[in-house]
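U., I forgot to send this yesterday:
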Amino acid sequence: MSAESENTSTIGIGSRKGWPIGGALGGAIGAAAFGVLMWALDPEIVSVAIPAIYGLDPVGVVGWGIHIAHGIVLGLVFGFLITRRPILGIVQTNPETEALSRTGLMLRVVGAGFVFGLAIWAILPLLVLPVWLETIGTGAAADFPGAAVQSLVGHVLFGTVLGIVFAATIDFDDRAVDTPLEA
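Result:
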């Protein structure tokens, strides 16, 4: 078996290291970009609020470590999802609009990262985090601005950077998968 066939999945995506590396790297860099934005707007979110959701004291760089770890996990989720047949098929679908039909697969992956960032914002800080904080009974709920515009912008920044890094890391070859939206 050649090295190329060992690193290419059955759906036409290959890389030197595989989608988990692209997802983890993109997630870490995206989380760092999001963290810098949060740090610039309100440093206590990273240093105090993030450790508080786990019941930890704000010591050193604990908040940064947790935030980057979150980004890596979410990057792996993105990498897994974007490389599965249904989602990759949608991303590869040839749209009938002229503007979108001129975009390449890599730009569409970046767009998928943007949408992933929006979805993460809608699910985690708006739905999951309030329930989690209520369940564990910490006072962190007041410290964490889940519905703030800064949170939305930060999550979209995370997803976009994740999409950029993932698209730059993964080799998309010409083999197409079934595109469910085309007739």
